[in-house]
TrEMBL record:
This is Haloacid dehalogenase. GO terms for molecular function: phosphatase activity. It comes from Bifidobacterium pullorum. CDD domains: HAD_BPGM-like. It holds the Pfam family Hydrolase.
């Protein structure tokens, strides 16, 4: 899992085709995955525990909010709508907006900060991937790690490099 977690979508398709000797083209495989993912993101995906309430608290407090994600809009937007957070953010950016970089690069976080009009040092990031945590930390952002099963293999290092650890957003800092 760690090998592909920071790859771009096409890179994952190419890796999968090579790894398993598939006859599909990257485009065919990505189209199949897109359809499966669109269905899942628009009907199955759930917010982390108490995340929606926490976002409403931050919004009410006047905090500037952004999403910095590796998801393309075709997946990101249905997921955000499904969990009820679509209108809570001032900015929504993906790695595509930042020049098609991976989450190993801090560019997506820097773009979110720039669009919010704040310095990286004034940003708090909630992240569940080690590569994302390291990227945001590398530009001086405060990073809270969110526990996720997909990052279990990296959990010890995640705990070392992050500024705080969350299992539930009810434990998140009230004032950032």
């Amino acid at each position: 899992m760690t090998k592909v977690s920071a790859m771009q979508f096409r890179q994952i398709a190419e890796y999968t085709i090579a790894r398993f000797g598939l006859e599909d083209t990257p485009e065919q495989l990505m189209a199949e995955w897109d359809e499966m993912a669109r269905e899942a993101y628009s009907t199955v995906v759930e917010a982390k525990p108490h995340a929606v309430e926490y976002l409403h608290l931050l919004r009410t407090s006047g905090a500037k909010l952004a999403v910095a994600t590796s998801l393309p809009p075709a997946l990101r937007d249905p997921a955000m709508a499904h969990v009820g957070i679509g209108g809570l953010f001032d900015e929504v950016v993906s790695v595509d907006d930042a020049g098609d970089v991976s989450k190993e690069s801090p560019d997506v976080y820097l773009l979110a900060a720039e669009r919010l009009g704040v310095s990286p040092a004034d940003c708090t990031v909630f992240e569940d991937l080690l590569v994302g945590i390291k990227a945001a930390k590398s530009v001086g952002m405060t990073v809270w790690a969110m526990n996720d099963d997909s990052s279990a293999g990296d959990w010890a290092e995640i705990c070392e490099v992050s500024d705080g650890v969350l299992f539930d957003f009810s434990d998140a800092p009230e004032i950032l």
